[in-house]
């Protein structure tokens, strides 16, 4: 006698070939019924013999498509209705969404094989895709994920594509972006004067790139600027036109073999490069390569990615065009360029040619940037290939939102026990970025089907997020910056109980009104206690110190050594005599010289004093270049330092500065001095933590490491080693950046605890 079951599957189950997979399983086990997409996931009705149903359920989990992820499934027995066959039925668009929005993935090997087969009707077609690869998030207008609700709706399928789309046994069954040269998007090349090439557009683009031209390329999530990465003249021209003098440029290599020629790529890095997510991977640069010298000036690393769209694969060639600069086309501080008219307008003086296509990008998305650090994945930017995939928590975070920070902004939503981090927005410093933020925030909120009743924001009163949230009718929860960093790392590792947190960061607003950024905390999502920090020193000129790090050095030297300190500063910065006199006056009178104790500014000051980087041209350059010159495999001797034992433990680096001044006077090797400074940061942090642990003997010896300075490979590696040797269990970030790109995760968890506490208090009062 036939039995029937209803299976509800939630997770990443739309846009990944899940329905045709279910269809094929049903045929294998001789089952009848239906499979349907809806706003809640995928619903399956299956009828057949009990044994066959059990085999079907087992295979459903064990053999799911590689891009799918089943987060939750529910099976209930239902009355048999006498289905005669199994079919895929029309999607149901009613109800509240609990969908996991599909992510964009690199073109798969099956599609590449077809694209390179002269006998295949999609030979050299730059938009080939199937259920296991291609655009998803970037083309979705509405949910559920069906073709009429994507930017592919303007491309009616030809008969050949339609047959594949409707054939449940075909790899492209219900692949929403399915297309071919007859019916799909097309590519064209346009020069800045309007001349157009439609036929052989890609070949012409290759020809111009090899001749030294700069080409704006419309990709999956926005425009890139490309040039021949082996042509120093072309790279310098790109830098000049884009006004990007030193910031490192990302490279796209034709294949892994070419990437291995320019970088020292280990097995894990190779896996990242060839993964469906296909991020930019920061790798050690080989000393002698074909790369133009100005690709990453002053750095020993280079950001490499492999082609992730068919268009990229067709454009690069191992023999004739093996390496391209592939850098985002937006101006510094502006949102990613993705609309054609705006790209033509803003890039007309930068690009010689535009390689474009007529498939609209609905949601712009930057490339993800990662590095393999000390045996783990370290996100510098979580974007394409990962957004908007959810994280999961055991806490109730439903109807909560978090707006992130001012820099490297990423917002977040909570839905039930899911955590959704939005796309990388950037720095909220102008109206265009704020509009971009609001647009993407509203789209994701609508897709998730939630209306936040509380929103977490950074407590810094001048952050733009306060201006955004004041227009909304919601409860606002201010969160201290470094507490959010700490809790983000805790949640990233599933920690709920109180622990220590070392936060090495750039700048964050402190509860005492000073600038924090080198913090030892203790607590969890419900509270925190500040145990120690770097001794405060003045930042003469405030935020100007970020772009002129010698100012920070002057502030530190003046604070520690008074008149003698300013003499040290004059000796090291002789061309700043007039400015140093002004800074001295500002510091002594307390005019625009806020007190700060931050790891980021400390790195900047030492970098400037060692003349490694006096004039940074991009955020973090001084610290990055200082970290790049040291030998990460070496263990350096720390400089002397002191820990002041007051109510709070305070790291005093006066002795370190005296030793550095002495080393500079003796013309010591800057690499050695930079290495010793790095080890001092580690040694001082560990000693502060040891002393704090003695004060908190009853506390578990667990510690999380967070903050933007934890991207520093040497510092993080040595901290983990030294803290483990001191019997601490050490946790670092796993799924979100340690920098401000992960801040919203911590904010959301803190907001959840505050709401829970307020609900409990309200219920208690009612009783």
Automatic annotation (TrEMBL):
<dbReference type="Pfam" id="PF00708">
    <property type="entry name" value="Acylphosphatase"/>
</dbReference>
<dbReference type="Pfam" id="PF22521">
    <property type="entry name" value="HypF_C_2"/>
</dbReference>
<comment type="similarity">
    <text>Belongs to the acylphosphatase family.</text>
</comment>
<comment type="similarity">
    <text>Belongs to the carbamoyltransferase HypF family.</text>
</comment>
<dbReference type="Pfam" id="PF01300">
    <property type="entry name" value="Sua5_yciO_yrdC"/>
</dbReference>
<keyword id="KW-0862">Zinc</keyword>
<comment type="pathway">
    <text>Protein modification; [NiFe] hydrogenase maturation.</text>
</comment>
<dbReference type="InterPro" id="IPR041440">
    <property type="entry name" value="HypF_C"/>
</dbReference>
<dbReference type="InterPro" id="IPR006070">
    <property type="entry name" value="Sua5-like_dom"/>
</dbReference>
<dbReference type="GO" id="GO:0003725">
    <property type="term" value="F:double-stranded RNA binding"/>
</dbReference>
<feature type="domain" description="YrdC-like">
    <location>
        <begin position="199"/>
        <end position="385"/>
    </location>
</feature>
<dbReference type="GO" id="GO:0051604">
    <property type="term" value="P:protein maturation"/>
</dbReference>
<feature type="active site">
    <location>
        <position position="37"/>
    </location>
</feature>
<dbReference type="InterPro" id="IPR017945">
    <property type="entry name" value="DHBP_synth_RibB-like_a/b_dom"/>
</dbReference>
<protein>
    <recommendedName>
        <fullName>Carbamoyltransferase</fullName>
        <ecNumber>6.2.-.-</ecNumber>
    </recommendedName>
</protein>
<dbReference type="InterPro" id="IPR017968">
    <property type="entry name" value="Acylphosphatase_CS"/>
</dbReference>
<keyword id="KW-0479">Metal-binding</keyword>
<dbReference type="GO" id="GO:0003998">
    <property type="term" value="F:acylphosphatase activity"/>
</dbReference>
<dbReference type="Pfam" id="PF07503">
    <property type="entry name" value="zf-HYPF"/>
</dbReference>
<dbReference type="InterPro" id="IPR051060">
    <property type="entry name" value="Carbamoyltrans_HypF-like"/>
</dbReference>
<keyword id="KW-0863">Zinc-finger</keyword>
<dbReference type="InterPro" id="IPR001792">
    <property type="entry name" value="Acylphosphatase-like_dom"/>
</dbReference>
<keyword id="KW-0436">Ligase</keyword>
<feature type="active site">
    <location>
        <position position="19"/>
    </location>
</feature>
<keyword id="KW-0378">Hydrolase</keyword>
<dbReference type="GO" id="GO:0016874">
    <property type="term" value="F:ligase activity"/>
</dbReference>
<dbReference type="InterPro" id="IPR055128">
    <property type="entry name" value="HypF_C_2"/>
</dbReference>
<feature type="domain" description="Acylphosphatase-like">
    <location>
        <begin position="4"/>
        <end position="90"/>
    </location>
</feature>
<dbReference type="GO" id="GO:0008270">
    <property type="term" value="F:zinc ion binding"/>
</dbReference>
<dbReference type="Pfam" id="PF17788">
    <property type="entry name" value="HypF_C"/>
</dbReference>
<dbReference type="InterPro" id="IPR036046">
    <property type="entry name" value="Acylphosphatase-like_dom_sf"/>
</dbReference>
<dbReference type="InterPro" id="IPR011125">
    <property type="entry name" value="Znf_HypF"/>
</dbReference>
<dbReference type="GO" id="GO:0016743">
    <property type="term" value="F:carboxyl- or carbamoyltransferase activity"/>
</dbReference>
<dbReference type="InterPro" id="IPR004421">
    <property type="entry name" value="Carbamoyltransferase_HypF"/>
</dbReference>
């Amino acid at each position: 006698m036939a039995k029937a079951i209803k299976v509800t599957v939630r997770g990443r189950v739309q846009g990944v070939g899940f329905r045709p997979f279910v269809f094929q399983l049903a045929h294998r086990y001789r089952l009848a019924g239906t499979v349907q997409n809806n706003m809640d996931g995928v619903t399956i009705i299956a009828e057949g013999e009990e044994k066959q149903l059990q085999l079907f359920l087992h295979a459903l989990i064990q053999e799911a498509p590689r891009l799918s992820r089943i987060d939750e499934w529910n099976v209930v027995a239902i009355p048999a209705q006498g289905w005669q066959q199994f079919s895929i039925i029309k999607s149901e668009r009613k109800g509240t969404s609990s969908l996991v929005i599909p992510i964009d993935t690199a073109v798969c090997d099956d599609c590449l094989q077809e694209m390179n087969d002269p006998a295949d009707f999609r030979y050299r077609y730059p938009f080939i895709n199937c259920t296991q690869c291609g655009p998803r998030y970037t083309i979705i207008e509405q949910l559920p994920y069906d073709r009429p609700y994507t930017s592919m709706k303007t491309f009616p399928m030809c008969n050949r594509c339609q047959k594949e789309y409707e054939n449940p046994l075909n790899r492209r069954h219900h692949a929403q972006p399915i297309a071919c040269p007859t019916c799909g998007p097309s590519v064209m090349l346009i020069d800045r004067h309007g001349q157009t090439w439609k036929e052989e557009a890609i070949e012409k683009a290759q020809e111009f790139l090899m001749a030294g031209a700069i080409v704006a390329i419309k990709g999956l999530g926005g425009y890139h600027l490309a040039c021949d990465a082996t042509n120093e003249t072309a790279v310098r021209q790109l830098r000049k036109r884009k006004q990007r003098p030193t910031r490192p440029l990302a490279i796209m290599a034709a294949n892994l073999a070419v990437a291995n020629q320019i970088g020292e790529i280990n097995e894990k890095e190779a896996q990242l490069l060839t993964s469906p997510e296909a991020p930019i991977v920061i790798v050690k640069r080989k000393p002698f390569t074909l790369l133009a010298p100005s690709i990453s000036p002053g750095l020993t690393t280079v950001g490499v990615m492999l082609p992730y769209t068919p268009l990229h694969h067709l454009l690069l060639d191992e023999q004739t065009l093996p390496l391209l600069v592939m850098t985002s086309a937006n101006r510094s501080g502006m949102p990613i360029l993705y609309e054609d008219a705006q790209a033509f307008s803003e890039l007309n003086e930068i690009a010689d040619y535009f390689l474009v296509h007529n498939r609209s990008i609905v949601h712009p998305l930057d490339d993800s940037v990662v590095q393999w650090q000390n045996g783990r994945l370290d996100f510098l930017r979580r974007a394409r290939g990962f957004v908007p995939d959810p994280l999961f928590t055991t806490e109730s975070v439903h109807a909560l939102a978090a707006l992130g920070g001012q820099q490297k902004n990423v917002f977040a939503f909570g839905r039930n026990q899911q955590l959704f981090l939005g796309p990388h927005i950037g720095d909220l410093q102008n109206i265009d970025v704020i509009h971009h933020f609001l647009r993407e925030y509203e789209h994701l909120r609508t897709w998730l089907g939630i209306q936040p009743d509380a929103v977490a924001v950074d407590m810094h009163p001048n952050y733009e997020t306060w201006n955004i949230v004041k227009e909304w009718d919601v409860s606002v929860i201010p969160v201290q910056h470094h507490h959010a960093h700490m809790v983000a790392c805790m949640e990233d590792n599933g920690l709920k109980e109180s622990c220590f947190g070392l936060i090495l960061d750039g700048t964050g607003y402190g509860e005492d009104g000073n600038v924090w950024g080198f913090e030892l905390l203790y607590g969890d999502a419900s509270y925190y206690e500040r145990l120690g920090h770097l001794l405060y020193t003045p930042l003469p000129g405030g935020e100007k110190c970020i772009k002129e790090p010698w100012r920070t050095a002057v502030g530190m030297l003046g604070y520690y050594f008074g008149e003698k300190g300013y003499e040290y500063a004059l000796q090291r910065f002789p061309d700043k005599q007039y400015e140093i006199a002004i800074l001295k006056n500002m510091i002594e009178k307390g005019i625009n010289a806020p007190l700060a104790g931050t790891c980021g500014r400390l790195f900047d000051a030492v970098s400037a004093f060692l003349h490694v980087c006096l004039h940074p041209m991009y955020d973090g350059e001084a610290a990055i270049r200082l970290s790049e010159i040291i030998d990460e495999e070496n263990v350096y001797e720390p400089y002397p330092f002191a820990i002041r034992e007051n109510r709070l433990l305070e790291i005093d680096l006066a002795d370190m500065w005296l030793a550095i001044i002495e080393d500079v006077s003796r013309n010591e090797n800057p690499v050695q001095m930079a290495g010793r400074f790095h080890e001092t940061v580690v040694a001082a942090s560990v000693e502060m933590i040891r002393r704090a642990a003695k004060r908190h003997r009853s506390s578990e010896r667990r510690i999380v490491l967070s903050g933007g300075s934890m991207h520093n490979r040497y510092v993080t590696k040595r901290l983990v080693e030294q803290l483990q040797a001191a019997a601490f269990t050490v946790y670092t970030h796993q799924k979100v950046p340690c920098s401000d790109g992960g801040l919203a995760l911590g904010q959301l968890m803190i907001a959840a605890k505050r709401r829970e506490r307020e609900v409990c208090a309200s219920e208690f009062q009612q009783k």
